[in-house]
Structure formats: structure tokens, C-alpha cells
Design a protein that fits this description.
Layout: E1 5-9, H1 13-24, E2 28-32, H2 36-45, E3 61-64, H3 67-72, E4 76-79, H4 86-93, E5 103-105, H5 118-125, E6 131-135, H6 140-144, E7 149-154, H7 158-168, E8 173-178, H8 181-203, H9 208-228, H10 233-236, H11 239-248, H12 255-264, H13 279-293, H14 299-308, H15 314-322
Parallel strand pairs: 1-2, 1-4, 2-3, 4-5, 5-6, 7-8
Antiparallel strand pairs: 6-7
Helix pairs in contact: 4-5, 8-9, 8-11, 8-12, 8-13, 8-14, 9-11, 13-14, 14-15
Length: 331
């Protein structure tokens, strides 16, 4: 089908890293960012010094500040914005994209105002373009430096998902295809909230044993919620569920875990709202609300939401979790 032409909307760390991954897979890449002056600087230096320093852009990556030009000839679009601004981005871009072009969404969250997962937002904004969800254990710096990474790409059209994996994948960026976009989306959204809890435990100095137990119970919550909203158990136990949870809940490279660390160490609960990419801050309230709506017990996620909303202190949230009744372990 010729050399794939991929448009990446969003030139933050993740969008820039994905541009490099697509280039390594043999694609012609258009990398678009909303700040035309910043894009001109990236193009001149061939490096995103602000968001992904030390990673050179491949020659086949065209850096653009014009959205219509970026989308004009694309036969695949990757939306690399955070979750909450995704709707505005897709709405702005809708008139420039051709019908039928697959849309890959890499945002990991739930739209706070509607309770919609990212694939549902994509369907509303681009009804004529099949949506796919890209998620899994991956830091932008690792992908940008071509370190081995494996993620999942999921959509309702499995044959197209398989083709996209073949087009976008490389030895260092391995993609697994799936027809369970809901399960993949749940893993990406919920793990950010649960990572804040693990960061709080670490920052509070509760010890490695407590953090490990919290991670295990966090996975139980993620699994219960995912199954309740239509995700499959094998997806939730895979790269985009358990894999991403393990990475995000145990590394200071994770913005959500790092934010939790600061909270546990006495930092203010509203600090994360200064950064749109601390996705768990924005997702926690709607995740807790959806859990109640679906009758799913998620005490860890609910505690994070309560701390962020000022209804509980960190100390009270920990006390509440530790004083829960003894019970049989179940997922």
C-alpha cells in the first residue's frame, strides 16, 4: 500500500516519541503542534528540547504548525493529546481529515464532563473515522530513545488494528492488536488514579510491603471495574492493564506516581491540576462516580478522589483503608 503517511496531533513528549516510533517503522510522519512558533523551533533544531530533550527527529518527520497541512494526505492519524483536551482537538481537526482514515487515540483517561472513554469521544467527534486505542506500559523517554517497549492497539475492526500494528510497529516498539478497546481504555485510565495512591503510600513511608499490597489490590479494583463496563479479563491482565499498572505505580518517571509521592510527603492536593498530563487528578472523580454507578467497589480509587476533592486528608484516607473489615481475598 506504499509508505504509510501518519499525522500525529500533539507535539508533547509522547507525540514526539510516537513520531520517532512511526518513523522507525518506515512511515512518513507529520508532527503537528498548536504553537506554531514552538514547532518552528523544533523544526530548526530537529529536537524537541522542551518535552523530549536529547532525541533527534528523523529526516522523514515533517514538523508543522498548520493543522490542515498535517492532515491533508494522512492515511492514519494519532491523537497524542491528554484526555481532557481531546474533544477540543478533534473538533478543531474534524473538517481537515478524510473519511475512513483510522484514528489512533493515545490519551489515557475518562472525559470528566461526560464520563465517556476516549474511544467514545473519538466516535462523537469523528463519526466517519474508526477509532483505535493505543495503551500499555510505555514512557515517552523510553520510546523516544528506542528502548524496547510493548503496547496494545485495540479497535472494533480487528483486521484494521492488525494492519496498523504492522505499519506502526518495529523491533523496539512492539504492538499487539486487540478487539477489546474498552478493556484497553479502562486499563489506561484507571491505572493513573491508582498510581497516585501508590505514590502516596511511598511518600508516606509506609514501606515496601504496604506498597506491594496496595498495587495488588489496585489491580483487583481495575479488574472489577473493567469487567463491569465491558472489558475482558485477559485484556485487563495484559499489557494495557496489569502491565501499565506495574510501570505507573512503581516509577518516579510516572507523573501520577510522582504527584502521589508529593501528596504523601505533605504536598497540596491541588498541585496536580497545574499539569494536564497528571491524568489521574482529572480522572479520579469521574472514575469513582462511574464505579458507584456500576456498583463496583473501588475503595482505593474513591479514597484518591476524596483526597483530591478535600473531603479526606491523606492520613484519614489511609486510616479508612486500613480499618476496612477483614474479608476473603477476591478480584
Amino acid at each position: 500500500m506504499g509508505q504509510p503517511r501518519v499525522a500525529i496531533l500533539g507535539a508533547g513528549a509522547w507525540g514526539t516519541a510516537l513520531a520517532g516510533a512511526a518513523a522507525a517503522a518506515g512511515c512518513q510522519v507529520a508532527l503537528w503542534g498548536r504553537d506554531a512558533d514552538a514547532m518552528a523551533r523544533i523544526d530548526a533544531s530537529r529536537e524537541n528540547h522542551v518535552h523530549l530533550p536529547g532525541v533527534r527527529l528523523a529526516p522523514c518527520i515533517t514538523v508543522l504548525g498548520a493543522l490542515d497541512v498535517a492532515l491533508a494526505s494522512a492515511d492514519c492519524v494519532i491523537a497524542a493529546s491528554p484526555a481532557q483536551p481531546l474533544r477540543a482537538l478533534l473538533t478543531r481537526a474534524a473538517s481537515h481529515v478524510r473519511a475512513g482514515v483510522p484514528l489512533v487515540v493515545s490519551a489515557k483517561g475518562i472525559e470528566r464532563t461526560t464520563g465517556l472513554f476516549m474511544g467514545d469521544v473519538a466516535r462523537q467527534c469523528w463519526p466517519d473515522n474508526p477509532p483505535f486505542i493505543l495503551s500499555g506500559p510505555s514512557f515517552a523517554s523510553d520510546v523516544g530513545r528506542k528502548l524496547p517497549t510493548a503496547v496494545t492497539l485495540a479497535g472494533d475492526e480487528l483486521a484494521v488494528a492488525e494492519e496498523l500494528c504492522a505499519r506502526l510497529g518495529s523491533p523496539a516498539f512492539r504492538l499487539y492488536h486487540s478487539d477489546d478497546p474498552r478493556g484497553v481504555a479502562v486499563g489506561g485510565a484507571a491505572k493513573n488514579v491508582l498510581a497516585i495512591a501508590c505514590g502516596i503510600a511511598q511518600g508516606r513511608g509506609l514501606g515496601a510491603s504496604a506498597v506491594a499490597a496496595l498495587q495488588a489490590r489496585a489491580f483487583a479494583e481495575l479488574s472489577r471495574f473493567g469487567r463491569a463496563v465491558g472489558g475482558r479479563a485477559e485484556t485487563l491482565a495484559g499489557l494495557s492493564g496489569l502491565g501499565d499498572l506495574v510501570l505507573t505505580c512503581g516509577s518516579a518517571q510516572s507523573r501520577n506516581f510522582s504527584f502521589g509521592l508529593r501528596l504523601g510527603d505533605g504536598g497540596p492536593a491541588d498541585l496536580g491540576r497545574e499539569d494536564a498530563v497528571v491524568e489521574g487528578v482529572w480522572t479520579a472523580p469521574i472514575l469513582a462516580e462511574l464505579a458507584v454507578r456500576h456498583g463496583v467497589d473501588m475503595p482505593i480509587a474513591a479514597s484518591v478522589a476524596a483526597v483530591l476533592d478535600g473531603r479526606l486528608t491523606v492520613a484519614d484516607a489511609i486510616d479508612n483503608l486500613l480499618s476496612r473489615p477483614f474479608r476473603a481475598e477476591r478480584s
